[in-house]
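hey
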């Protein structure tokens, strides 16, 4: 499947180039008149400057309306307790960050109670797909390509798998990663318990224990432990879970009803979920459009210096893409690239 590409060249009018990109790629061919169209995006954690610029989203909304669709902006609440944990705070954050060009509907409800459990394949048996995603007629997935500590990078597949699922779905994916505490190193100081926002680790007989099913395998306790006693095991499983969840999300749509646009700009070390995303890791690349999440993510990784992303996370960035392909999500690991200059 082809991937269409506009280089990030600010000598050009990139808004006009993006419109040309969508036309060439057939981005809006998935929409029929009257369709309820989910514009799946990430509005950025409050304080994070590296998310897709709202004026690009404004133009996508305008084009959806032109072809007769009824667009709404959407994302799912976070599992961790930040500014997008519930629908009220999530919507306020969206407005502050400039996303006011269409209704913003939090996909999984006020407190992440709105979801549909669907069967999937791969490392997961089932996944909790956010209700507004599962009920939409069509979807445009707008992704910001960047690094990620657990999955190597975030793009279209992560936007589907993690971004289109409820609290329970997010937890299900993260729990595929194991966590191990070396009691020979652990001093029982309790720093891990203090650092954890949910205070899940317990100090039992002078040693840390974390057996809580609520633990989402965030790295905070690992980074805080002064004895380096905590580590992840099978960290690569999250990449497999993202692909498995993405398959489940896509199963709620009819064939050819989802399209993808990805922005490889401000490629930071960490995710848009953080108010402190770290340093920019590489120069801006451009805008991609495709009808395949496999192809569009593979195209970014081949054009990026993705070895530096691998080194930052100690995860193979291509794993989630290969897994999605192996599970049957259509696309090419070496896609045909069509550049629009």
């Amino acid at each position: 499947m082809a991937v269409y590409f506009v280089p990030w060249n600010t000598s050009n009018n990139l808004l006009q180039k993006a419109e040309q990109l969508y036309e060439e790629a057939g981005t809006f061919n998935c929409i029929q008149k009257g369709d309820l169209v989910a514009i799946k995006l990430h509005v950025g954690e409050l304080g994070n400057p590296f998310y897709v610029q709202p004026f690009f989203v404004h133009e996508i909304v305008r084009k959806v309306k032109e072809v007769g669709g009824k667009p709404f902006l959407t994302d799912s609440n976070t599992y961790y307790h930040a500014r997008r944990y519930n629908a009220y705070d999530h919507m306020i954050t969206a407005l502050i960050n400039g996303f006011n060009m269409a209704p913003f509907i939090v996909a999984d409800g006020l407190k992440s109670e709105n979801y549909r459990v669907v069967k999937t394949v791969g490392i997961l048996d089932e996944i909790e797909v956010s209700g507004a995603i599962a009920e939409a007629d069509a979807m445009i997935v707008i992704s910001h390509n960047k690094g990620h500590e657990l999955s190597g990078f975030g793009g279209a597949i992560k936007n589907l798998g993690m971004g289109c699922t409820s609290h329970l779905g997010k937890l299900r994916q993260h729990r595929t990663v194991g966590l191990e505490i070396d009691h020979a190193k652990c001093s029982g100081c309790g720093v891990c318990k203090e650092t954890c926002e949910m205070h899940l680790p317990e100090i039992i007989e002078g040693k840390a224990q974390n057996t809580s099913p609520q633990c989402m395998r965030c790295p905070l306790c690992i980074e805080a432990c002064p004895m380096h006693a905590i580590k992840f095991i099978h960290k690569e499983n999250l990449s497999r879970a993202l692909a498995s969840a993405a398959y489940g999300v896509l199963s709620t749509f009819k064939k050819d009803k989802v399209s993808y646009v990805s922005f490889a700009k401000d490629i930071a070390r960490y995710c848009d979920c953080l108010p402190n995303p770290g340093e920019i890791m590489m120069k801006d690349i451009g805008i991609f459009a495709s009808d395949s999440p496999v192809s569009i993510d593979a195209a970014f990784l081949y054009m990026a210096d993705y070895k530096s992303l691998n080194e930052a996370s100690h995860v193979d960035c291509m794993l989630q893409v290969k897994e999605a392909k192996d599970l049957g999500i259509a696309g090419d690991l070496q896609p045909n690239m069509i550049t629009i200059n």
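The longest helix spans residues 237-250. The two ends are 20 Å apart (CA to CA).
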